[in-house]
Design goal:
The chain is built from 9 helices and 19 strands. By secondary structure, the chain is an alpha+beta fold. The strands form 4 sheets. Strands 1, 2, 5, 12, 13, 14, 15, 16, 17, 18 and 19 form an 11-stranded antiparallel β-sheet that branches. It has a 4-stranded antiparallel β-sheet with strand order 3-4-10-11, with no helix packed on it. A hairpin with a 4-residue loop joins strand 12 and strand 13. It is elongated and about 110 Å long. The chain starts with a helix and ends with a helix.
Length: 469
């Protein structure tokens, strides 16, 4: 009778364990459904959600660090046509994006419109010196005028250069080069990023995700247009994806992320590189591929970005993007820092460049469940063109067209410790708790079932042996 009771108890235990395991198994799809629902609810851009609270505020501190290419041999370049020798000088760091979005307006088509204020505050503690540090750099006015006027106007340009005692290179402060100075040749304010303070990027119209969470954050319109008007091509003028601050939740790392950057006047994509730990949070790192700025020879999709056949050597040059069509005619060429992923001749014509994948690539780190970008580094280099001229004295010794790197910028932001703790406690902890419950129920149920089954077999075997005896 005792053996029978033990066998019955073990059978009941096995059944109980199986039920618990089944319950844990059932909770996996059910829990995933709950997790998905919770995430999708909090990812919608509307008052009361986590996404809205972080989206409306200025959020994590965004810094722009600048490294200038200080010219070490300006006299040799002018007198002998020597290759420029440059040395990096920086970083000079500014706090940007410190102002919240303005004019936030929700629209009837499940979009929200806003303006993004722009400003820069110098951060001495994160810089190698003050804004008043001087740099020997390319003369923006001379290089710009050379690119804008035809060869037939070079004699007139020479007269203006001589009258203002301008040269191919100039000695300016960091502050002047970035934010503006009055130039004697152009008789106007010139600066690499002038005007910037008290200006706005936008209007943006982005989808809230209320009707379709897969569209959350995706740009519907920028400056009132659903496509750009810079490239005269329907493909290159597309506005794809988000502004890179967030993406649709529940990422599939096999699929690239698309985003639009007004700094480079085009949309780009980033592909999954690896999973990393960011302050205790698992994030996916996405990086720009070399194909982004590849020549049309290697990436035919880039043909519509090729604007200048002479400079790009019939569109065979890789690594640069001519922004003159979207910079009010200013002859600006954008590349990755130190011409990373560019054609070899770009680094061969300037001595002192050392492109590094680790230091100069652009990447995003995105939390895969929510789609929130928690860390990023956007690295862009500003270049200008100069070349030979038989009439302009400061260019007579120049042997070939040169894309000269003026400065490269690293725009970065990462969540602080307080925000990381809030993110883990308010959202990820709930998700993790549900996953733990699933695993505990499943694991405990299987363990009980297997133990009861083993003990049942042991009891049954002993009972059979005692009968034989």
């Amino acid at each position: 009778m005792g053996c029978c009771n033990r066998r019955c108890g073990l059978i009941a235990g096995a059944v109980f364990g199986a039920v618990v395991a089944i319950l844990g198994g059932i909770l996996i799809p059910l829990g995933n459904k709950i997790i998905q629902g919770t995430v999708e609810k909090e990812a919608v851009i509307e008052p009361g959600t986590i996404a809205y609270d972080t989206w409306t505020a200025s959020g994590a501190k965004v810094y722009r660090q600048f490294w200038f290419f200080d010219v070490k041999n300006p006299k040799e370049i002018l007198e002998h046509g020597s290759k420029p020798v440059v040395m990096e000088k920086g970083p000079y760091t500014y706090w940007t994006r410190y102002l919240p979005k303005e004019n936030i307006t929700f629209n009837s088509n499940h979009t929200v419109s806003f303006l993004l204020p722009q400003g820069a505050i110098f951060e001495p503690s994160m810089s190698v010196g003050p804004e008043e540090d001087n740099v020997t750099s390319l003369n923006l006015a001379v290089a710009g005028a050379y690119s804008l006027v035809g060869e037939e106007l070079h004699p007139l340009l020479e007269i203006m250069i001589q009258a203002t005692k301008s040269s191919l290179f100039q000695y300016r402060t960091v502050k002047e080069l970035l934010w503006g100075y009055t130039d004697p040749l152009m008789k106007d304010t010139l600066g690499l990023f002038a005007p910037y303070n008290d200006t706005f990027d936008g209007y943006y119209n982005v989808y809230t995700g209320k009707d379709d969470i897969k569209k959350v954050g995706m740009i519907d319109m920028w400056r009132g247009r659903r496509s750009l008007n810079f490239w005269n091509d329907s493909y290159c003028d597309m506005i794809n994806g988000t502004d890179a601050t967030s993406f649709a939740p529940l990422l599939d790392k096999k699929k690239p992320l698309y985003f639009f950057s007004s700094d480079i006047c085009r949309s780009v994509s980033a592909s999954y590189e690896k999973t990393v730990d960011l302050k205790g949070i698992k994030v996916y790192r996405y990086s720009l591929l070399p194909e982004t700025l590849a020549s049309p020879v290697n990436n035919p999709d880039n043909r519509c970005f090729c604007r200048n056949m002479k400079i790009t050597k019939n569109c065979t040059l890789a690594g640069v993007l001519d922004l003159s069509s979207c910079q009010e005619g200013r002859p600006i060429f954008i590349s990755l820092a130190h011409f990373l992923h560019g054609s070899p001749e770009l680094t061969e014509q300037i001595l002192g460049l050392n492109p590094s994948e680790e230091q100069h690539k652009t990447y995003l780190e995105v939390e895969p469940t929510t789609g929130f970008t928690l860390n990023f580094a956007k690295r862009i280099q500003v270049n200008m063109l100069y070349g030979p001229s038989k009439d302009i004295t400061v260019l007579k010794k120049v042997k070939d067209y040169t894309l000269f790197p003026v400065v490269w910028m690293n725009e970065t932001a990462t969540l602080d410790d307080e925000t990381a703790d809030m993110f883990k406690n308010e959202l990820l902890s709930r998700i993790n708790m549900l996953e733990v419950i699933q695993q505990v129920l499943l694991g405990t149920g299987i363990a009980i079932f297997l133990l009861c089954l083993i003990f049942y077999c042991v009891v049954k075997r002993k009972q059979n042996q005692s009968k034989l005896a």
